[in-house]
Structures are given as C-alpha cells and as structure tokens.
Design goal:
The structure is a single chain. It contains nine helices and eleven strands. By secondary structure, it is of the alpha/beta class. The strands form two sheets. The protein has a six-stranded parallel β-sheet, sandwiched between helices. Strand 9 and strand 10 form a beta hairpin. Helix 1 packs across helix 8, helix 4 runs parallel beside helix 5 and helix 6 runs parallel beside helix 7. The two termini are 35 Å apart. The relative contact order is 0.15.
Length: 270
C-alpha cells in the first residue's frame, strides 16, 4: 500500500535480518524497502523473501546503502558498531528514522550517533524487547529503594557466537541500577574478576558474562543483602522479541523529528 511505512534492514542475510524481513512481510501497515548487505557478502543479489524462507519478494539484497536508505522511511539496524555509525550519517542525510540495536559501541561511536541525531530520529537501545525495558524500570526502582549495603550483580548468558561482553542488555540494566543509585556506572562497575581480587567494594555493580550453545539471551539482576536476595530476571526465548520491539520503534518514530531516543521513550516508561 502507498501509505505503508517503508522499512529497510541491515544484515539482511543474518539471523536478525531474516527475522525482521519475515515480520515486516506479515505486519499490516509495513512494507519492505530493501535489505543491506556488506560488500562481498555471499548474500548479495539474493531475493530477500528467499533468504527469510518466504516466497520470492522481488527485492534483492544490496550493498547500495545510500540508495536503499533514500527510499525508506526507517532503517532497522542490528549490525556492528563501525557500520551503524556510517548508517547513522546516511539516515541523518535522508532525515529518516534509524532504529539501532547494535551493541558494543565505543564512546566515540556514541558521540557520532548523537551528532547524527541532530538530523535523524534515532531510537537506540541495548535491547529492544518490551520485557527487558520493563525489567530496567524495575531495576532502577529497586536500586533507588535499597542502599549501597545491597550488592548488585548482573549475570548474562548468550549464544557462543556473540562477540561483545558484557551484553548491551547487561549494560542497559547496569545503567538503570546506577541511575537508581544516583552514581556513574563507569566509576562503579566491576568486571572479569579473576585471581586474588580482594573483597568486593561496597556500592559496586558487578557483571558476569556466560557464553555457550544457542542461548538467545538470559539476564538476571541480583540484589544481595544480609541474609536475603532479590532476583529480577528476563529470558528471551526467540529473537523475534527484539525484532518486534524494533519495528514498534520504527513506527513510533514516524513524524517525531530529530532526536536520540530510547525504548523507554517508545514504551512510555519512566
């Protein structure tokens, strides 16, 4: 339909890209604008429908990012930091919505994305799922209510192919805990304990990362006090939860104007 929201996806041949293509195809009001693949990818030229296990859609995977973005209303981007930064510059040029689910971004990457948000509507989150963003709100509230004598530990597990640690979701939850306590996460986090590390520092927010098998994403936030523990958690059983959240963000961003937003903005969560 002419008034459908035209959505392009990055990494069209990857697991998330294929999931997004399938959901766009089956969701009323959305249309597939194109799929971007890196130069030299074996998926270049492949029909996007075929890649996603659908009947052919007559749209081929392409490395012409500028051309695809110019014809789209939104770009949904689960890629790698270097690519996401470049895509942010292109979406700013095209003045469209850019939904970023990429993790492992450096401070320099974050700064370039923030600069692009002066012209593009950018929704960026370490996790796009409704459940995780509700969990973050609960973590923030719990951290606000409990003093620093309650130790906070964040444990996450993902599939063996994940390349960054802690996960973007773990960092999102850590940031929520830090905000609840009114502290800076970077100054109060502990990671990768090994050997004679000494006693745990009061007020620290600890992270532990597990990798193995085909785990989509498990996260627990543990508040450990004297003789009691509170455990808040989320289990992602299928990556479709992230794709659905990202498409919701792409729809929400239409007509919003430039700015850097989060899934909390999309969902109206304080």
């Amino acid at each position: 339909m002419a008034d459908d929201i035209k959505i392009a996806v990055t990494g069209a041949g990857g697991r998330m890209g294929r999931t997004l293509i399938g959901l766009i195809h089956e969701t009323a009001g959305l249309a597939l604008a194109g799929g971007i693949e890196a130069e030299g990818s074996p998926h270049l030229g492949a029909d996007l429908g075929t890649l996603a296990g659908l009947p052919p859609l007559g749209i081929a995977a392409s490395d012409d990012a500028l051309g695809i973005i110019a014809g789209a209303d939104a770009l949904v981007d689960f890629s790698v930091p270097a690519a996401s930064v470049e895509f942010a510059a292109l979406t700013a040029q095209a003045r469209i919505v850019h939904v970023i689910g990429t993790t492992g971004l450096s401070e320099a990457d974050e700064a370039r994305i923030a600069a692009a948000a002066r012209h593009a509507t950018i929704v960026k989150a370490g996790n796009m799922s409704l459940g995780v963003n509700l969990l973050a709100a609960l973590v923030r509230q719990a951290a606000r209510a409990l003093d620093a004598s309650w130790d906070i530990e964040i444990v996450e597990m993902h599939h063996r192919h994940k390349v960054d640690a802690p996960s973007g979701t773990a960092l999102l939850l850590g940031q929520a805990a830090a905000e609840g306590r009114g502290v800076e996460l970077r100054e109060n986090s502990e990671r990768g304990r090994d050997g004679q590390t000494g006693a745990r520092k009061e007020g620290a927010i600890g992270f532990a990362s597990l990798r193995g098998g085909s785990v989509v994403g498990d996260h627990e936030v543990i508040f450990a006090g004297a003789q009691e523990r509170i455990v808040l958690g989320h289990v992602a059983e299928d990556r479709g939860v992230f794709a659905r959240g990202a498409l919701k963000a792409a729809q929400w961003g239409q007509g919003k104007g430039p700015g850097l937003f989060s899934m909390a903005d999309v969902l109206g969560i304080e």
